[in-house]
Each structure stands twice: as C-alpha cells, then as structure tokens.
Write a structure and sequence with these properties.
Blueprint lengths: L1 H26 L5 H4 L3 H9 L1 H14 L4
Helix pairs in contact: 1-3
Length: 67
C-alpha cells in the first residue's frame, strides 16, 4: 500500500511542478499561457501516467536541443 501512495504522491508533485513552471512563464511575460495550463481531466491522467509524461518531456527536450 505504501508504494501506491508514493506513486500517486509523485504524480501530484509532478503536476504541482508543472503548475509552478506555468506560473513562472506567466510572470516572465511568455505568451499562450492558457494553452499550457492543464485542466482537471489532464491533471488526473498525468497523475496516473506520470512516468510517461516525464518520458515525453525528456524526448521533447532532446529533440529541441541545438545541434
């Protein structure tokens, strides 16, 4: 049971970090903030499948690195 609580806690922490990142972009004047915000359904799905979300973010970062 402890591993299940840890799994969901990491998912909730991941969503919190995404919200903090969007807040930072909002303060710095970045455009299209509303498209970055997760709705409730997306937050639930991200909490459940957070390892896939992290993998997706890593792939996008490596694809956008300057060569």
């Amino acid at each position: 049971m402890n591993w299940l609580l840890a799994y969901f806690s990491i998912g909730i922490l991941f969503n919190f970090l995404i919200d903090l990142l969007v807040d930072y972009f909002e303060k710095t004047g970045y455009e299209d903030i509303n498209e970055m915000r997760f709705n409730t359904f997306t937050k639930i799905i991200t909490t459940i499948f957070w390892p896939l979300a992290i993998l997706f973010i890593i792939v996008v970062i490596f694809k956008n690195l300057p060569r």
